[in-house]
């Protein structure tokens, strides 16, 4: 592969994390370093461990769990605070790195974030996660 196509492929697989209103996106450092070590474009991040707590949340919130191929608009308050006794799926998916900020806007003076899957590695991970969740339902 040429240098340019290699960089594009790295970006497609491992870039896309955004944590604020700023348009700056970052790469998954673990996966990028694993790519350089193993010389393979694969799902390095998810192979570090299956998040069983996410499987439990997906099983609990079946109706929400299968919409992640589309973007999700949420108020900042949804991401900012939540009750640990009743963990909500969307903020946990954001905190765990399965969702990232794809857009930011103000609505009536309140911040609204659009969340989406950040990259190919996460798209692959989420598919594996959903397959595992469906097998357990």
Q: Would you kindly provide a brief summary of this structure?
A:
With 137 residues, the protein is α+β, with helices and mostly antiparallel strands. The protein has one domain (3-136). Helix content is 47%, strand content 18%.
Q: Count helical runs.
A: 7
Shape category: globular
User: What is the strand content?
Assistant: 15-25%
Gyration radius, in Å = 16 Å
Query: Major sheet, described briefly?
Result: 3 strands, antiparallel
Secondary structure class reads alpha+beta
The overall number of domains is 1
DSSP strand count: 5
Give the rounded overall mean pLDDT: 84
Would you identify the regions where 5 or more consecutive residues have pLDDT less than 50? none
Helix content: 40-55%
Strand order, largest beta sheet: 3-5-4
Order of helices and strands: HEEHHHEHHEEH
Distance between the termini: 42 Å
Structure description:
The protein is α+β, with helices and mostly antiparallel strands. It has seven helices and five strands, in the order αββαααβααββα. The strands form two sheets. A three-stranded antiparallel beta sheet has the order 3-5-4. A hairpin with a 2-residue loop joins strand 4 (100-107) and strand 5 (110-116). It is globular and about 45 Å long. The chain starts with a helix and ends with a helix. The mean pLDDT is 84.
């Amino acid at each position: 592969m040429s240098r340019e196509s290699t960089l594009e492929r790295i970006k497609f697989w491992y870039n896309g994390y955004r944590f604020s209103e700023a348009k700056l996106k970052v790469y998954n450092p673990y996966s990028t370093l694993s790519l350089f070590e193993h010389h393979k474009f694969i799902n390095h991040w998810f192979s570090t461990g299956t998040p069983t707590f996410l499987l439990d949340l997906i099983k609990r919130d079946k109706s929400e769990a299968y919409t992640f191929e589309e973007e999700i608009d949420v108020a900042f308050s949804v991401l900012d605070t939540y009750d640990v006794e009743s963990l909500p799926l969307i903020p946990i998916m954001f905190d765990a790195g399965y969702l990232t900020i794809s857009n930011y806007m103000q609505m009536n003076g309140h911040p609204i974030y659009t969340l989406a899957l950040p990259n190919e590695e996460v798209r692959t991970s989420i598919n594996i996660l959903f397959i595992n969740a469906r097998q357990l339902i």
